[in-house]
Amino acid sequence: MAEAYIVGAVRTPIGKRKGGLSGVHPTDLAAHTLKALIDRTGVDPAAVDDVIMGCVMQVGPQSLNIGRNAWLSAGFPESVPGVTIDRQCGSSQQAVHFAAQAVLSGTQDLVVAAGVESMSIVPMGASLVPNMPFPYGESWVARYGLQEISQFHGAELMCKKWGFTRRQLEEYALESHQRAAKAIADGRFKDQIVPVNGVENDEGPRPDTSLEKMAELKTLREDGIITAATSSQISDGSGAVLIASERAVREHNLTPRARIVNLTVLGDDPVYMLTAPIPATRKALERTGLSIDDIDVIEINEAFAPVPLAWLKEIGADPARTNPNGGAIALGHPLGGTGAILMTKLLHELERTGGRYGLQTMCEGGGMANVTIIERL
Fold first, then answer.
1. Above 90 in pLDDT, residue 320?
2. What is the arithmetic mean of pLDDT over 116-127?
3. Reduced to 3 states, what is the DSSP secondary structure of residue 342?
4. Cα(188)–Cα(202) distance, rounded to whole angstroms?
5. What is the Rg, in whole angstroms, of the alpha carbon atoms belonging to the chain?
6. Which residue in 125, 220, 227, 238 is a FRET match for 249, CA 20 to 30 A apart?
């Protein structure tokens, strides 16, 4: 049976909105990551079969196939094609899936899976063009009605369904900041980050935050309990992963760092929107025959605090193994870049701790989730 290996994974620091990366054109930001990936793995860029890049707001500076444009901006061969994909927040995790599937199929040997988003330059919602019809037409309304469809509404629905209190959300958020701050202080991210414009560390974590400070914030909606403190941060960032076949490993003298074990994607209620990681994880574990206790490191995107809290409650995972170095509440969530960034974090944490299996999952607009399981080699 064919295998797909991760042979390289790098990321930029995650910059906060209007922070150190906010002046970097997203194409240049992605190109910077691609150059670092090729440099660190030592592969001939001309040998790459394809570049698959996740990006959510594909307008303005992120339009016209940023995957292709970033590769060319990096100065790499014109013979290598590129494509940009959108599975909402899971875009670059899906890029990893498509890259691995191409290798597993035997049709390609070296594929770059990457992602980028500059939310300082291209704000969330930029693709909703004014005076153009909303993306939901009559058939959608006939099926789901005129109820609100948004991540904020979904997060509040989750809080009600699972009975979370504002205090519980804030306690989780505080833990995320504390873990991220410790990871940075301990230098855990140093080997995975390629500095940009003098920025060497993730800018989001607030070591001095407290439950008292969080309690002072206004909720994002009048009748809700979600605040900015219990939501992922608006951010800028990019990540890139190189997937190789057994043949490519031999021919290019590469070192396999992890093996792709499972690729799952699943849909769930698009109104709740953020719940799909739960059934998707169950499906992935069932297909592999693994239990959640077999998983040594877990990265679940902290879009909002109720997402990992509900997942932990339903799946029964060990909280200590889940986002051990903090998540998007502290570190940030540059939409299309997050999937590749989380995979980079997951791989490096497995290597740091000597763990065997890692699992990555994230909720996505439209009520979907990707789950990827890797085995450290």
1. yes
2. 96
3. helix
4. 12
5. 19
6. 238
Three-class SS state of 310 = helix
Which residues are part of the catalytic machinery?
A: 89, 333, 363
Q: In this predicted structure, what is the pLDDT of residue 130?
A: 82
Tokens matching residue 223: 């009748």
Rounded to an integer, what distance in angstroms lies between the CA atom of residue 46 and that of residue 69?
16
In this prediction, residues 206-210 reach a mean pLDDT of 96
Task: Work out whether strand 82-85 and strand 50-54 pair parallel, antiparallel, or are unpaired.
Answer: parallel
- As a whole number of angstroms, the distance between CA 346 and CA 309 comes to 19
* Percent of the chain surpassing pLDDT 90: 96
pLDDT tens by residue, 229-238? 999 999 999 9
pTM for the model:
0.98
Answer yes or no: is pLDDT of 122 > 90: yes
What is the number of alpha carbons within 13 Å of residue 183 lying toward its C-beta? Answer: 30
Q: What local confidence, expressed as pLDDT, does residue 220 receive?
A: 95
The one-letter amino acid code at 75 reads G
CA dihedral for 245, 249, 250, 256, sign (positive or negative): negative
Q: Kindly report the backbone phi and psi dihedral angles of residue 164, in degrees, each rounded to the nearest multiple of 5, phi listed first.
A: -75, 145
Cβ neighbours for 358, distance < 8 A, ≥ 6 positions apart: 258, 295, 296, 297, 298, 299, 346, 347, 349, 350, 373, 374, 375, 376
- The closest alpha carbon to 320, from 341, 297, 301, 304, belongs to 297
- Segment (H or E) for 117: strand 110-118
Residue 47 burial class via C-beta count within 10 angstroms: exposed 0-12, middle 13-18, buried 19 and up? middle
Q: How confident is the model at residue 132 (pLDDT cuts 50, 70, 90)?
A: confident
Q: Please choose, from the candidates 277, 281, 271, 285, the residue with its C-alpha nearest in 3D space to the C-alpha of residue 301.
A: 277
**Residues 240 and 33 sit within 8 Å (Cβ to Cβ):** yes
Measured between alpha carbons, how far is 275 from 31 in angstroms, rounded to an integer? 33
For the chain, domain boundaries: 4-123+234-252
Does 96 score more than 90 pLDDT?
yes
Protein fold of 4-123+234-252:
Peroxisomal Thiolase; Chain A, domain 1 (3.40.47)
